[in-house]
Write a structure and sequence with these properties.
Distance between the termini: 140 Å
Shape: elongated
Number of domains: 3
Number of strands: 22
Radius of gyration: 33 Å
Strand order of the largest sheet: 9-10-12-13-14-15
Oligomer: single chain
Protein backbone atom coordinates (compact mmCIF):
# COMPACT_ATOMS: atom_id res chain seq x y z
CA UNK A 1 0.00 0.00 0.00
CA UNK A 2 2.81 2.36 0.88
CA UNK A 3 4.47 1.43 -2.40
CA UNK A 4 1.32 2.32 -4.35
CA UNK A 5 1.06 5.66 -2.55
CA UNK A 6 4.65 6.53 -3.37
CA UNK A 7 4.13 5.66 -7.02
CA UNK A 8 0.97 7.84 -7.12
CA UNK A 9 2.70 10.79 -5.45
CA UNK A 10 5.61 10.56 -7.86
CA UNK A 11 3.22 10.53 -10.82
CA UNK A 12 1.44 13.61 -9.42
CA UNK A 13 4.74 15.51 -9.15
CA UNK A 14 5.68 14.63 -12.68
CA UNK A 15 2.36 15.88 -14.05
CA UNK A 16 2.54 19.08 -11.98
CA UNK A 17 6.10 19.79 -13.07
CA UNK A 18 5.16 19.15 -16.68
CA UNK A 19 2.38 21.76 -16.41
CA UNK A 20 4.84 24.28 -14.92
CA UNK A 21 7.32 23.56 -17.70
CA UNK A 22 4.59 24.13 -20.28
CA UNK A 23 3.96 27.60 -18.82
CA UNK A 24 7.66 28.50 -18.73
CA UNK A 25 8.11 27.37 -22.30
CA UNK A 26 5.57 29.95 -23.55
CA UNK A 27 8.28 32.23 -24.93
CA UNK A 28 8.02 35.99 -24.34
CA UNK A 29 8.66 37.22 -27.86
CA UNK A 30 10.80 40.23 -28.65
CA UNK A 31 8.94 43.17 -30.27
CA UNK A 32 9.81 43.69 -33.93
CA UNK A 33 9.56 46.25 -36.75
CA UNK A 34 10.71 49.24 -34.73
CA UNK A 35 10.07 52.60 -36.40
CA UNK A 36 9.90 56.30 -35.61
CA UNK A 37 7.25 58.73 -36.82
CA UNK A 38 6.25 62.36 -36.34
CA UNK A 39 9.80 63.47 -35.59
CA UNK A 40 10.14 67.13 -34.57
CA UNK A 41 13.03 69.06 -33.10
CA UNK A 42 12.07 68.04 -29.54
CA UNK A 43 9.81 64.98 -29.82
CA UNK A 44 9.12 61.74 -31.67
CA UNK A 45 6.75 58.76 -31.62
CA UNK A 46 8.40 55.33 -31.24
CA UNK A 47 6.54 52.35 -32.73
CA UNK A 48 6.89 48.54 -32.73
CA UNK A 49 4.93 45.34 -33.27
CA UNK A 50 4.21 43.02 -30.31
CA UNK A 51 3.03 39.46 -30.98
CA UNK A 52 2.63 38.48 -27.31
CA UNK A 53 -0.94 37.99 -26.07
CA UNK A 54 -0.25 40.26 -23.14
CA UNK A 55 2.82 42.14 -22.05
CA UNK A 56 4.13 45.45 -20.87
CA UNK A 57 6.74 47.02 -23.11
CA UNK A 58 9.90 48.51 -21.67
CA UNK A 59 11.49 51.26 -23.79
CA UNK A 60 14.97 52.65 -23.22
CA UNK A 61 16.32 55.55 -25.26
CA UNK A 62 19.18 58.01 -25.20
CA UNK A 63 21.69 59.82 -27.37
CA UNK A 64 23.43 57.54 -29.83
CA UNK A 65 25.90 55.16 -28.19
CA UNK A 66 24.38 55.22 -24.70
CA UNK A 67 24.99 52.14 -22.52
CA UNK A 68 22.01 49.96 -21.49
CA UNK A 69 20.75 51.06 -18.11
CA UNK A 70 21.96 54.62 -18.61
CA UNK A 71 19.16 55.77 -20.92
CA UNK A 72 15.66 57.00 -20.15
CA UNK A 73 13.30 54.11 -19.38
CA UNK A 74 9.54 54.12 -20.00
CA UNK A 75 6.87 51.42 -20.01
CA UNK A 76 3.56 51.11 -21.83
CA UNK A 77 1.04 48.48 -22.81
CA UNK A 78 0.56 50.09 -26.22
CA UNK A 79 2.46 49.60 -29.48
CA UNK A 80 3.79 53.14 -29.55
CA UNK A 81 4.86 55.90 -27.21
CA UNK A 82 5.53 59.63 -27.57
CA UNK A 83 8.81 60.92 -26.15
CA UNK A 84 9.50 64.60 -25.52
CA UNK A 85 12.15 67.00 -24.25
CA UNK A 86 14.65 65.83 -26.87
CA UNK A 87 17.47 67.96 -28.21
CA UNK A 88 17.20 69.36 -31.75
CA UNK A 89 19.32 67.92 -34.56
CA UNK A 90 20.54 65.07 -32.34
CA UNK A 91 21.08 61.33 -32.99
CA UNK A 92 19.13 59.00 -30.70
CA UNK A 93 19.06 55.21 -30.19
CA UNK A 94 16.26 53.18 -28.64
CA UNK A 95 15.37 49.53 -28.05
CA UNK A 96 12.41 47.73 -26.48
CA UNK A 97 11.71 44.59 -24.44
CA UNK A 98 8.48 42.71 -23.75
CA UNK A 99 7.67 42.06 -20.08
CA UNK A 100 5.30 39.07 -20.16
CA UNK A 101 5.65 38.46 -16.41
CA UNK A 102 8.10 39.14 -13.64
CA UNK A 103 10.03 35.99 -14.53
CA UNK A 104 9.34 35.95 -18.26
CA UNK A 105 11.04 38.78 -20.18
CA UNK A 106 11.99 38.87 -23.83
CA UNK A 107 15.48 39.57 -25.05
CA UNK A 108 16.19 43.15 -26.11
CA UNK A 109 15.22 44.21 -29.61
CA UNK A 110 17.72 45.44 -32.13
CA UNK A 111 18.58 49.11 -31.69
CA UNK A 112 16.72 51.61 -33.85
CA UNK A 113 18.12 55.08 -34.49
CA UNK A 114 16.70 58.43 -35.53
CA UNK A 115 17.71 62.09 -35.76
CA UNK A 116 15.55 64.88 -34.40
CA UNK A 117 14.69 67.77 -36.69
CA UNK A 118 16.46 71.12 -36.49
CA UNK A 119 14.67 73.83 -34.54
CA UNK A 120 12.39 76.06 -36.62
CA UNK A 121 13.54 79.58 -37.39
CA UNK A 122 11.79 81.92 -34.97
CA UNK A 123 10.46 85.02 -36.80
CA UNK A 124 10.68 87.23 -33.73
CA UNK A 125 13.21 89.84 -32.64
CA UNK A 126 14.76 87.96 -29.75
CA UNK A 127 17.62 89.43 -27.66
CA UNK A 128 20.34 87.47 -29.48
CA UNK A 129 20.66 86.21 -33.03
CA UNK A 130 21.46 82.66 -31.93
CA UNK A 131 18.06 82.38 -30.23
CA UNK A 132 16.31 82.80 -33.58
CA UNK A 133 17.72 79.49 -34.93
CA UNK A 134 18.68 81.04 -38.26
CA UNK A 135 22.09 79.36 -38.11
CA UNK A 136 23.18 75.92 -36.93
CA UNK A 137 26.33 74.85 -35.10
CA UNK A 138 29.03 77.44 -34.56
CA UNK A 139 27.14 80.60 -35.45
CA UNK A 140 30.27 82.37 -36.75
CA UNK A 141 30.46 79.81 -39.57
CA UNK A 142 27.13 81.21 -40.87
CA UNK A 143 25.78 77.75 -41.69
CA UNK A 144 22.13 78.50 -42.31
CA UNK A 145 19.30 76.37 -40.99
CA UNK A 146 17.74 73.80 -43.36
CA UNK A 147 14.56 75.77 -42.67
CA UNK A 148 16.03 78.72 -44.62
CA UNK A 149 17.68 79.22 -48.01
CA UNK A 150 20.27 81.50 -49.58
CA UNK A 151 19.56 83.90 -52.40
CA UNK A 152 21.76 86.09 -54.58
CA UNK A 153 21.07 89.26 -56.53
CA UNK A 154 22.58 90.14 -59.90
CA UNK A 155 23.66 93.66 -58.94
CA UNK A 156 24.37 93.82 -55.20
CA UNK A 157 23.89 96.89 -53.05
CA UNK A 158 27.33 98.40 -52.34
CA UNK A 159 28.25 98.91 -48.68
CA UNK A 160 31.92 99.89 -48.30
CA UNK A 161 33.06 96.69 -50.02
CA UNK A 162 31.50 94.46 -47.36
CA UNK A 163 30.49 90.94 -48.33
CA UNK A 164 26.90 89.90 -47.65
CA UNK A 165 25.18 86.62 -47.01
CA UNK A 166 21.51 86.84 -47.98
CA UNK A 167 18.97 84.47 -46.43
CA UNK A 168 15.20 83.94 -46.60
CA UNK A 169 13.17 81.81 -44.19
CA UNK A 170 9.51 81.00 -44.82
CA UNK A 171 7.05 79.37 -42.39
CA UNK A 172 6.55 75.65 -42.96
CA UNK A 173 4.11 74.96 -45.77
CA UNK A 174 4.24 78.47 -47.26
CA UNK A 175 5.85 80.01 -50.34
CA UNK A 176 6.64 83.36 -51.89
CA UNK A 177 4.18 84.19 -54.66
CA UNK A 178 5.12 85.72 -58.00
CA UNK A 179 3.18 88.83 -58.98
CA UNK A 180 5.52 90.76 -61.34
CA UNK A 181 9.23 91.49 -61.70
CA UNK A 182 9.28 93.45 -58.43
CA UNK A 183 9.04 92.01 -54.95
CA UNK A 184 7.22 88.68 -54.63
CA UNK A 185 4.36 88.38 -52.17
CA UNK A 186 5.86 87.11 -48.92
CA UNK A 187 3.71 85.19 -46.42
CA UNK A 188 3.33 86.37 -42.84
CA UNK A 189 6.16 84.95 -40.78
CA UNK A 190 8.69 85.42 -43.59
CA UNK A 191 12.15 86.48 -42.47
CA UNK A 192 14.85 88.11 -44.63
CA UNK A 193 18.38 88.36 -43.21
CA UNK A 194 21.52 89.99 -44.57
CA UNK A 195 24.84 89.50 -42.78
CA UNK A 196 27.72 91.92 -43.49
CA UNK A 197 31.33 90.76 -43.13
CA UNK A 198 34.88 91.34 -44.35
CA UNK A 199 37.45 88.71 -45.22
CA UNK A 200 40.71 89.56 -43.49
CA UNK A 201 42.62 88.91 -46.71
CA UNK A 202 40.89 88.46 -50.05
CA UNK A 203 44.00 86.74 -51.40
CA UNK A 204 43.95 84.14 -48.60
CA UNK A 205 40.46 83.30 -47.37
CA UNK A 206 41.89 80.80 -44.88
CA UNK A 207 42.72 83.77 -42.66
CA UNK A 208 39.04 84.10 -41.78
CA UNK A 209 36.67 87.04 -41.60
CA UNK A 210 35.10 89.60 -39.30
CA UNK A 211 31.31 89.68 -39.15
CA UNK A 212 29.88 93.14 -38.39
CA UNK A 213 26.09 93.01 -38.39
CA UNK A 214 23.02 91.03 -39.43
CA UNK A 215 20.04 93.09 -40.61
CA UNK A 216 16.67 91.38 -40.43
CA UNK A 217 13.20 92.04 -41.82
CA UNK A 218 10.22 90.07 -40.48
CA UNK A 219 6.70 90.20 -41.88
CA UNK A 220 3.99 90.08 -39.23
CA UNK A 221 0.30 90.81 -39.84
CA UNK A 222 1.18 92.03 -43.34
CA UNK A 223 3.66 94.61 -41.99
CA UNK A 224 7.44 94.43 -42.31
CA UNK A 225 9.42 95.05 -39.11
CA UNK A 226 13.11 95.89 -38.94
CA UNK A 227 15.80 94.80 -36.50
CA UNK A 228 19.59 94.90 -36.48
CA UNK A 229 21.98 92.53 -34.70
CA UNK A 230 25.50 93.72 -33.82
CA UNK A 231 28.16 90.97 -33.62
CA UNK A 232 30.48 90.82 -30.64
CA UNK A 233 34.28 90.90 -30.90
CA UNK A 234 34.59 87.18 -30.16
CA UNK A 235 32.18 86.40 -33.03
CA UNK A 236 30.16 84.13 -30.76
CA UNK A 237 26.80 85.89 -31.17
CA UNK A 238 25.06 89.13 -32.11
CA UNK A 239 22.70 91.23 -30.00
CA UNK A 240 19.65 93.22 -31.02
CA UNK A 241 20.72 96.86 -31.15
CA UNK A 242 18.91 99.94 -32.51
CA UNK A 243 21.83 102.36 -32.12
CA UNK A 244 24.42 103.56 -34.62
CA UNK A 245 27.93 102.16 -34.24
CA UNK A 246 31.28 102.90 -35.87
CA UNK A 247 33.39 99.78 -36.38
CA UNK A 248 36.98 100.31 -37.60
CA UNK A 249 37.81 97.74 -40.27
CA UNK A 250 41.01 96.88 -42.11
CA UNK A 251 41.51 94.19 -44.73
CA UNK A 252 43.55 93.19 -47.77
CA UNK A 253 41.63 93.47 -51.04
CA UNK A 254 41.88 91.10 -54.00
CA UNK A 255 44.77 93.15 -55.41
CA UNK A 256 46.80 92.78 -52.23
CA UNK A 257 46.17 96.38 -51.19
CA UNK A 258 45.58 97.36 -47.57
CA UNK A 259 42.13 98.87 -47.07
CA UNK A 260 40.59 100.59 -44.05
CA UNK A 261 37.26 102.15 -43.23
CA UNK A 262 35.17 103.20 -40.28
CA UNK A 263 32.20 101.01 -41.07
CA UNK A 264 28.90 102.60 -40.07
CA UNK A 265 26.26 100.35 -38.56
CA UNK A 266 23.04 102.34 -39.12
CA UNK A 267 20.58 103.13 -36.38
CA UNK A 268 16.97 102.05 -36.56
CA UNK A 269 15.69 105.31 -38.08
CA UNK A 270 18.28 105.17 -40.86
CA UNK A 271 17.17 101.63 -41.69
CA UNK A 272 13.56 102.74 -41.84
CA UNK A 273 14.50 105.69 -44.06
CA UNK A 274 15.70 103.39 -46.83
CA UNK A 275 13.28 100.53 -46.24
CA UNK A 276 10.09 102.48 -46.69
CA UNK A 277 7.86 103.63 -49.49
CA UNK A 278 4.96 105.98 -48.83
CA UNK A 279 5.46 105.29 -45.15
CA UNK A 280 5.25 101.51 -45.50
CA UNK A 281 8.35 99.47 -44.62
CA UNK A 282 9.48 97.17 -47.42
CA UNK A 283 12.41 94.96 -48.50
CA UNK A 284 14.79 96.33 -51.12
CA UNK A 285 16.93 93.60 -52.65
CA UNK A 286 14.99 90.38 -53.33
CA UNK A 287 13.01 91.55 -56.33
CA UNK A 288 12.15 88.94 -58.92
CA UNK A 289 14.18 90.73 -61.61
CA UNK A 290 17.18 90.95 -59.25
CA UNK A 291 17.10 87.19 -58.64
CA UNK A 292 16.43 86.19 -62.26
CA UNK A 293 19.88 84.96 -63.27
CA UNK A 294 22.03 81.83 -63.12
CA UNK A 295 23.60 80.82 -59.82
CA UNK A 296 25.91 77.81 -59.82
CA UNK A 297 24.87 76.94 -63.35
CA UNK A 298 21.08 77.10 -63.07
CA UNK A 299 18.48 79.83 -63.03
CA UNK A 300 17.79 80.91 -59.47
CA UNK A 301 14.05 81.44 -59.98
CA UNK A 302 13.75 77.98 -61.51
CA UNK A 303 15.48 76.49 -58.47
CA UNK A 304 13.15 78.38 -56.13
CA UNK A 305 10.14 77.13 -58.09
CA UNK A 306 11.36 73.53 -58.08
CA UNK A 307 11.78 73.66 -54.30
CA UNK A 308 8.40 75.35 -53.82
CA UNK A 309 9.97 78.47 -52.36
CA UNK A 310 8.25 80.46 -55.12
CA UNK A 311 4.91 79.68 -56.75
CA UNK A 312 2.93 80.85 -59.82
CA UNK A 313 6.18 81.68 -61.61
CA UNK A 314 6.17 82.00 -65.40
CA UNK A 315 9.15 80.91 -67.47
CA UNK A 316 12.10 83.05 -66.28
CA UNK A 317 12.88 83.88 -69.92
CA UNK A 318 9.64 85.90 -70.00
CA UNK A 319 10.61 87.93 -66.89
CA UNK A 320 12.88 90.97 -67.03
CA UNK A 321 16.31 90.63 -65.44
CA UNK A 322 18.37 93.30 -63.69
CA UNK A 323 21.72 93.48 -65.50
CA UNK A 324 24.92 92.93 -63.57
CA UNK A 325 26.42 96.41 -63.60
CA UNK A 326 29.89 94.83 -63.86
CA UNK A 327 29.01 92.99 -67.07
CA UNK A 328 30.60 94.89 -69.96
CA UNK A 329 28.40 93.08 -72.50
CA UNK A 330 25.72 95.60 -71.52
CA UNK A 331 25.83 99.23 -72.61
CA UNK A 332 27.09 101.89 -70.20
CA UNK A 333 23.54 103.20 -69.91
CA UNK A 334 22.16 99.75 -69.00
CA UNK A 335 24.92 99.19 -66.45
CA UNK A 336 24.42 102.64 -64.92
CA UNK A 337 20.67 102.16 -64.66
CA UNK A 338 21.17 98.74 -63.06
CA UNK A 339 23.49 100.26 -60.46
CA UNK A 340 21.05 103.10 -59.76
CA UNK A 341 18.11 100.68 -59.52
CA UNK A 342 19.74 98.71 -56.70
CA UNK A 343 21.70 101.43 -54.90
CA UNK A 344 19.56 104.52 -55.29
CA UNK A 345 15.99 103.78 -56.43
CA UNK A 346 14.65 102.91 -52.96
CA UNK A 347 14.99 106.63 -52.11
CA UNK A 348 14.83 108.13 -55.61
CA UNK A 349 11.48 106.83 -56.86
CA UNK A 350 7.78 107.60 -56.35
CA UNK A 351 7.05 107.16 -52.65
CA UNK A 352 10.74 106.94 -51.76
CA UNK A 353 12.23 108.86 -48.86
CA UNK A 354 13.98 111.51 -50.97
CA UNK A 355 11.10 112.14 -53.33
CA UNK A 356 8.62 112.35 -50.45
CA UNK A 357 10.71 114.59 -48.21
CA UNK A 358 12.67 116.78 -50.61
CA UNK A 359 10.20 117.25 -53.46
CA UNK A 360 12.45 115.19 -55.66
CA UNK A 361 11.33 113.98 -59.06
CA UNK A 362 14.10 111.50 -59.82
CA UNK A 363 13.02 107.95 -60.63
CA UNK A 364 15.94 105.56 -60.79
CA UNK A 365 13.90 102.35 -61.09
CA UNK A 366 14.93 100.01 -63.89
CA UNK A 367 11.51 100.13 -65.54
CA UNK A 368 11.57 103.93 -65.85
CA UNK A 369 12.69 105.21 -69.23
CA UNK A 370 15.85 107.28 -69.34
CA UNK A 371 13.83 110.31 -70.41
CA UNK A 372 11.59 110.04 -67.34
CA UNK A 373 14.33 109.11 -64.86
CA UNK A 374 15.64 112.69 -64.52
CA UNK A 375 19.19 111.36 -64.65
CA UNK A 376 20.11 113.83 -67.37
CA UNK A 377 18.54 116.79 -65.56
CA UNK A 378 20.44 115.92 -62.36
CA UNK A 379 23.70 114.81 -63.95
CA UNK A 380 25.74 117.65 -62.42
CA UNK A 381 24.52 116.90 -58.90
CA UNK A 382 25.19 113.18 -59.39
CA UNK A 383 28.69 113.88 -60.71
CA UNK A 384 29.63 115.91 -57.63
CA UNK A 385 27.83 114.01 -54.87
CA UNK A 386 28.39 110.41 -56.00
CA UNK A 387 32.22 110.53 -55.70
CA UNK A 388 32.08 112.54 -52.45
CA UNK A 389 32.85 111.15 -48.99
CA UNK A 390 31.42 114.15 -47.11
CA UNK A 391 28.81 112.87 -44.60
CA UNK A 392 25.35 114.21 -45.36
CA UNK A 393 26.37 115.30 -48.85
CA UNK A 394 27.67 112.13 -50.47
CA UNK A 395 25.35 109.75 -52.22
CA UNK A 396 24.13 107.20 -51.33
CA UNK A 397 23.15 109.00 -48.16
CA UNK A 398 24.01 106.13 -45.79
CA UNK A 399 25.94 102.89 -46.00
CA UNK A 400 28.92 104.31 -47.88
CA UNK A 401 31.93 106.00 -46.28
CA UNK A 402 34.33 105.00 -49.05
CA UNK A 403 33.29 106.18 -52.54
CA UNK A 404 32.75 103.17 -54.77
CA UNK A 405 35.62 103.78 -57.18
CA UNK A 406 34.74 101.03 -59.66
CA UNK A 407 31.20 102.42 -60.03
CA UNK A 408 32.56 105.97 -60.28
CA UNK A 409 34.80 104.86 -63.16
CA UNK A 410 31.69 103.75 -65.04
CA UNK A 411 29.08 106.33 -64.08
CA UNK A 412 30.98 109.63 -64.19
CA UNK A 413 32.40 109.12 -67.71
CA UNK A 414 28.97 107.99 -68.84
CA UNK A 415 27.32 111.11 -67.44
CA UNK A 416 29.96 113.24 -69.15
CA UNK A 417 28.93 111.80 -72.51
CA UNK A 418 25.45 113.26 -71.95
CA UNK A 419 26.68 116.87 -72.35
Amino acid sequence: MKRLCLIGFTFFLLVACKNDDDQIMDECKTPTNLSVTQITDVSAILNWENSNDYSEIKIEYGEVGFLPGEGTILTTSQNSISINDLFPNTNYDFYVQALCSIENISIESVINSFITDVSPVIPEFLPTLSEMNLFTGNIAELNISPKAFLYEISTPLHTDYAHKQRVISLPSGTSMEYQDDGLPIFPDGALIAKTFYYNHDETNLDLGRKIIETRILIKQSNVWHIGNYLWNENQTDAVLDEDEHIVPISWINEFGEEMTTNYEVPNYLSCVMCHQNNGNRTPIGPKIRSMNFDVNGSNQLTEFTNKNYLINTPDPSSISSLPNWNDTSYSDEERTKAYFDMNCAHCHSPGGFHNNNYSGNMDFRLETSFEDSQIYENRFSIRTRFPSSIPGYSMPYIGVTIPHQEAIDLIIPYLETLE
